[in-house]
Prior knowledge:
Blueprint: H1 15-22, H2 33-53, H3 64-81, H4 88-112, H5 118-139, H6 144-157, H7 160-173, H8 178-190, H9 195-208, H10 213-239, H11 251-254, H12 257-269, H13 273-283, H14 290-303, H15 308-317, H16 332-356, H17 360-375, H18 381-401, H19 406-418, H20 422-435, H21 440-452, H22 458-468, H23 475-488, H24 491-504, H25 510-537, H26 545-556, H27 563-577, H28 582-594, H29 603-613, H30 617-630
Helix pairs in contact: 1-2, 2-3, 3-4, 4-5, 5-6, 6-7, 7-8, 8-9, 8-10, 9-10, 10-12, 10-13, 13-14, 15-16, 15-17, 16-17, 16-18, 17-18, 17-19, 19-20, 20-21, 21-22, 21-23, 23-24, 23-25, 24-25, 25-26, 26-27, 28-29, 28-30
Amino acid sequence: MLPQLVGNRPPTIKVKEIALRNCSSPGLPKTDKGQEKGVRRVEWKGLVGALLGARLPSCDPGPLCRKRAIIKKASDLEYRIQRRTLFKEDFINYVQYEINLLELIQRRRKRIGYSFKKDEIENSIVHRVQGVFRRASAKWKDDVQLWLSYVVFCKKWATKTQLSKVFSAMLAIHSNKPALWIMAAKWEMEDRLSSESARQLFLRALRFHPECPKLYQEYFRMELMHAEKLRKEKEEFEKASMDMENPDYSEEILKGELARIIYKNSVSIIKGAEFHVSLLSIAQLFDFSKDLQKEIYDDLQALHTDDPLTWDYVARRELEIESQTEEQPTTKQAKAVEVGRKEERCCAVYEEAVKTLPTEAMWKCYITFCLERFTKKTNSGFLRGKRLERTMTAFRKAHELKLLQEFQYKQLIKSLLSHKFLREALEVAVAGTELFRDSGTMWQMKLQVLIDSKSPDIAMQFEECFVHLKHQVCLSLWISWAEWSEGAKSQEDTEAVFKKALLAVIGADSVTLKDKYLDWAYRSGGYKKARAVFKSLQESRPFSVDFFRKMIQFEKEQESCNMANIREYYERALREFGSADSDLWMDYIKEELNHPLGRPENCGQIYWRAMKMLQGESAEAFVAKHAMHQTGHL
């Protein structure tokens, strides 16, 4: 048997009547303060009680205990939003609870196929949530996120008329936000299918924001969508052989005349090729607007010849123009040749552009296009070779004019290296370091190309690099030199590089270098060499904890492990990091306990030394770890 809902809805009782009926005590005078507090308390309870009474029909159909839990939770939430001091979080929690309840009821109905009093129950919850949203949005009018949450709720649960009212209220307060106008107009156009309402919203928005490019773009798009919709409707009527007397189907509107008017008005207000190109890109989404596209394109060339963006757009447009021949290429080779021709036409436009407008911005557009085409995947060796040739030709011209930025050299080097064009990459790298002699990253890339190409002049280039960068700390370059030397030179040469680096790199940057030096010493000369390096660096602060831990690990890897040396390394490490590193103290204690030559009797002394040196949270962490270790949990 299906579960039954709570009984009939109780009769509506006004809050004032509840308060008067419950506080009728003739023994108390009207001026008594206790009576006034009692009246206020009863009014409060009466208000919440009346609001909860309206909830009873919307309780979840099910066991009584579940209904009690729902009413108890709702009571708490209702009390919170009826207080004198209101908090936004209370309203949000109330709304979230009601939405969760609504979704739970819907899922349960779907699962058990139960539809009894569906509209009455769920509509009452929706109306209640709307009421909470109205109160919250009236209290916190400036909270856009709250309004947007209200809109999202109405889109899912409320009627279109209600959502339209919400948009109107929101825009009356937040008329200074173009994105909200666009959202409302888009909803009117796409959900309510009301082009006229969307148009009116855009016109109102433009009164507030007469110079907002985004509003003009979306209004332009909307009118083109409207014209496209009318054209489709007309086609359907014509297919059905129905008479059309609707005045909306005028030829001017069907051709996008309204969009053309918006275009003309907008470009007279908003200058610049970028906005012009954005409107042209929108118009290209609609096949019927060829005449409008041509008009915008011609205006772009006429009005913005001195803008690199215009030339960039005109050049890239050549890729979209199909071949004039009737027969389309069928084989892969023919298609590659056709793509090559299109790219040649693009480059011809760019060549004309850099002659007409020889600026850094124009060359940037040209080089960017060449790089995009060069990095585009292709199986055609012919096409790949042509792209490389065009890219290098454009680069050489721009480099001679010194109109390229540093990042463009780096982009080109990376692209060439990824395709294994080492000779060309070296040419670009050499040119880059000539122009940007003080750039450490440019030298880094040049040296990397030299290493990849196995040049015999690498050591000399490293020396030259540090001559130009003598006032800079180039840790990565020193490490690169040492790593290259380790594989290509003798141990003496590599150690000389490390020693030079330690003289040049000081402070915190030297920490990594010392760790690298110690690692290299152990790899190349074993423990004896590593200990010698450690001894030579032990007073050259700063260090890292790993510097000492490495030596401890090296010692433990020896067949005849010397516990005295391990203690020495721990003691030196604790001098540097004993006041903050609790793990170092714990490892020292464990070493004395677990090592065959360790002295467990030293652990107590180490513990008390740690307690004296460690401070704050480090001391607390050490005590906790030590206790866990003693109980066998660590």
